[in-house]
Amino acid sequence: MHAPEFVIKPRSHTVWEKQCVRLHCTVSGWPDPRVVWYKNNVALDPLANPGKYKIESRYSVHSLEINKCDFDDTAQYRVSAMNAQGELSAFASVVVKRFKGEIDEFLPAPRLGPVSEYGITFQTHIVDKFGVSFGREGETMSLGCTVIIYPALHRYQPEVEWYRDDVLLSPSKWTHMHWSGDRATLTLTHLNKEDEGLYTLRVTTKSGYETYSAYVFVRDADAEVEGAPAAPLDVRCLDANKDYIIVAWKQPAVDGGSSILGYFVDRCEVGTTHWIQCNDTPVKFARFPVTGLVEGRSYIFRVRAVNKSGISRPSRVSEPVAAMDPADRARMRGTSAPWTGQIIVTEEEPAEGIVPGKPLDLQVTEATKNYVVLSWKPPGEKGLEGVMYYVEKCVSGTDSWQRVNTEIPVKSPRFALFDLAEGKAYRFRVRCCNSAGVGEPSDPTEATTVGDKLDIPSAPGKVIPTRNTDTSVVVSWEASRDAKELVGYYIEGSIVGSNVWEPCNNKPVNVTRFICHGLITGEKYVFRVRAVNAAGISQFSQESEAVEVKAAIASPAPPYGITVLECVRDSMVLAWKQPTFIGGADITGYFVDYREVIDGVPGKWHEANIKAVSERAYRVSDLKENKKYQFQVRAANMAGVGIPSLPSNTFLCEEWTIAVPGPPYDLQIREVRNDSLVLLWKPPVYQGRDPVNGFYVDIKEADAPEEAWRGVNTKALEKTYTKIKDLKEGEKYVFRVRAQNKAGVGKVSDVTEPVPALTKPGTKEIVVDVDDDGVISLNFECGNMTPDSKFVWSKNYEEITDTSRLSTETKGTKSKVVFNRPGEEDIGVYSCLVTHTDGASSSYTLSEEELKRLLEISHDHKFPIIPLKSDLAVELLEKGRVRFWLQAEKMSNNGKVDYVFNDNVVSQGEKYKMNFDKNTGVIEMTMESLTPADEGTYTFQLQDGKATNQSSLVLIGDVFKQLQKESEFQRKEYFRKQGPHFIEYLSWEVTPECCVVLKCKVGNMKKETSALWHKDRHQIKVDEHLGFAEGVLKLEIAQISKKDAGVYEVILKDDRGQDTSTLNLTDQGFKDLMNEVFSVIANSSTPLKITSTDEGIRLYTFVSYYNDLLQVTWHYKDSAIAFSDRIKSGVVGEQLWLQIKEPTEKDMGKYAIEFYDGKGGLRRTVDLSGQGENRARVAGGLPDVVTIQEGKALNLTCNISGNPVPEVTWLKNDREITSDEHCILKFESGKFASFTITGVNTSDSGKYSILVKNKYGTESGDFTVSVKPDKISISD
């Protein structure tokens, strides 16, 4: 047994007039508590107000429903639970609001049903709504909603209105309104705190109206002076008269950190920009009388707050107000002059010469410590001329009256007195005056003590915060006691532990319940409240208890879409759709009610199930055959049982006998993306005559007509889910499913709700992962979870309950399933759904190929291999050192290496040097040299955590011997090069001039280094004082012959050591050298030519150098020529020739000379065909010697032949001569050449020649001229 306890307390509500409100709570206790509802502590009796109240108690959930709320229903409601163990109460407030307009104060009730003007019913939907908004003073803010009116009529204009705190807004410089035909927009052009409040859009058609509301918060602008208070707000002008106006305002919520000392009031005449401060010292009271105005002028006002740090920004200016008598305002017939704001008034004709009577009804309307305000009525006489007033005062208890305004009488029947002594009591009276004189004084007022008559309100009472949404908290409090002229309340909030308080509202609210928005989800807050009136701001209330910012839970909305899945004689199986709003908590079950319908009249509801059912399908039993029934369904969660659904259609209870299946049910849509989604359903309860063997899915666009339905699949689906692809992004679709059996295709399911093909922002997919231990898992992350969200994993879209093969882990916003023993049994479609979100879900298909791939990766992770960039290799370094090395792709700092030789681990020492560069992954081991004992297998074994690898290199047999030999050679080479050494050893080359040069390239030389040349061990040359670090040594052999054959040697030596290079030029070495010499000689030979001699024809060629060892062969028609007395060969200097005596036609043909060079040789050829007749010839006519006496003329002529005509050249002493006056040379008709000297002298003596030449040959004729002083003699 235990006392009553409220599991869920009732929540406070604010509703519009004519709406219904429902308060509910969940109570536990044993025995079951008795629950009573109270309104303002008066017990409610539903029978006393039939139809007004409805009280229900079911399943420990108790509710009070108030129908058609009006203002009288605004109250505090209490629910009391009592049993034998005690009594407990809980409270909730209901506030009923009305719209306020310009003409009618209240909004009309919505008009329901068809409208006669159009004959149709308009359906209005407000979508794309503005949410709770935050702005800052000085900014611009736009609020907008899209309005859909169906049917859409061309040029139909609904009535669109905007309200702030239930007050209708009109267009002004502060508020701009726009209607585009489908979107309503309100723009706040320059935010001020006056703009804070609840904004409501109201769209009215002929069929009624729809509204939407959201709160707008306006934060203070940054202070111009650090620490200065925020600006006052809501500046208004009260009680305006001819020269007197009372200005009122509201204090700001933020004081800047120090108390506000008071306020300055500024005025500005309309049409000017000059502001004048009205009070010299700050006033603390939030009202102030402004005097000294010019009658007929219009003014605007603003207020500034001041504290010890400085003055605030000015408030928003007031509306313009004219300084004039209220009666004159009513009789005003003129207009205001725009540049001065002056009002022109026409009055009745005044009476002249009459002294006015006493003012009437004098009273003190306001008294503070700064001023006292008097008001009265003018004297009763009409038509008096220019009535003005004098005000007089006297200290209470005396009869000494003192005129206050001695210089200028006032025109208004209002007057403010300043500079009165605080705490003293005064009496006041007023006299009228005009040009006729001063009238009698009015009756004096009662004694009035100077001081604040309005007290600052007391601190509000207990503050109670309750959860509301993820970013807001409902704060309620007890009103300030005995507060007079209360303006409202300011609420502040603070994160627990921060000690930083922030205002939740910047405009006072005049209720005791407020929703604080813009809070941080998951943080804990405390709240406090202050009350405000014109006298000031109260002390803070006590801090509330801490509350965590998270969504509150409520009972679910009603289910909908009730259908029949199967019907037999006495029972029916029903199905329904999940509520659109589940109340912030999981639905724990459903309750079904039924009632019989007789002749269209429904009967009483009966409970079909006492215990909640978790499925969205239920068999209702104990029905009567051939009777008609209606059904309703309620959903329940931890907050309680929700209101019932609308009654279903009327269904006849008769047994189904159709052969085809009934409709599938419980269609669900998941994994919505831009081009695809997944559709799930449950098979029909009624299968027909044969079992269901497949399903067909239909699709159509949501707005398309019925004939637009089309099939998704042509072949029946075996499973109860499918992925629908190729959707159009942004398009809305609906779906339905049909089942089939052998008899055919059955009834269609209910149609799904329209769903747009859009990937929601932040959507993530399931990611497969294989960790370092080889564990395969599927991972899903959701970024928009609520505190009550859960991850639900499924295989083939059936929730996973068997944990033997899969394990689930969830941390924060991430969840994963782990495959315990992955195998073929795990192949399937895995999906994850996150509850209490907007449909966050994803799937992953594990196919046979994918499983195989993952198992391979898992094996690699379980038994990881360190990847290598290169396997173990060997190379030789300087000095013949041996380096074994490999390179790993990547190893951590914890990686290690074992170096193994012939299965034995070797370590760092004199013989082995190891190095492991972990940055590059290069692992190496070096040895100074190799010995026969080092022959074998080398292995590097790598380990990095679990990952291992090894690489081996086998060095045995010829491979090892070759490496050892090369190492030893490199070692010797290193030491050789420490002193003078040969970079290139001794070699030979043959120059184009056939000079043989022995040469070698040396290095590391110095001045003391000498180079000794030897042939056959005999020194032949010494090079000393070489003086270069690196150069070439040479030995030239100008005309090589057999005597030059031998072994040549060069020895380099100095104090650092010596090096030797040897060149063997004997036998084959000498033969190779000579062959190169022969090759150079052959390549220097000129083309084979032909010339005529006295004996016949000579073939010849010239070479640059002739060596006696040169071997040549003459050929005729490709056969070697057999020499005889008629055909001979020989060498004259550098000319090689072949002489043919007395050639005949048989000698015509191709001749060649072949040079032998030990390789391919070189051949020069010439053709003698036809050349005996055509070659150039000197036929005769020239003597051998001519002796002539000086002064005589010499004339010689010879015959020339040849084809083509030869070229003729004359020579003297082997030098060419040309024709001139002394020596005349002629060649006529291509046959006759003449040589004439007109007068010889001794200088003409010498050897003369004629040279004739064509392409077939060359021939010359020679003669000698001798000039004597005696007679000429000619000898043969």
The CATH architecture term of the domain at 2-97 is Sandwich
Q: What oligomeric assembly is this protein in?
A: single chain
The CATH topology of the domain at 2-97 is given as: Immunoglobulin-like
Alpha carbon gyration radius: 63 Å
Mean pLDDT across the residues is 87
GO molecular function, one term: identical protein binding
GO cellular component, one term: myosin filament
Domain Ig-like: 4-95, 110-217, 756-847, 980-1066, 1188-1266
Pfam family, one: fn3
Q: Any overview of this molecule?
A:
It is a single chain. By secondary structure, the protein is mainly beta. Among the domains are: 2-97, Sandwich (Immunoglobulin-like), CATH 2.60.40; 125-219, Sandwich (Immunoglobulin-like); 236-329, Immunoglobulin-like; 360-450, Immunoglobulin-like, CATH 2.60.40.10; 462-549, Sandwich (Immunoglobulin-like); 560-653, Sandwich (Immunoglobulin-like), CATH 2.60.40.10; 665-757, Immunoglobulins (Immunoglobulin-like), CATH 2.60.40.10; 767-858, Immunoglobulins (Immunoglobulin-like, Sandwich). 5% of the residues lie in helices and 47% in strands. The protein is elongated.
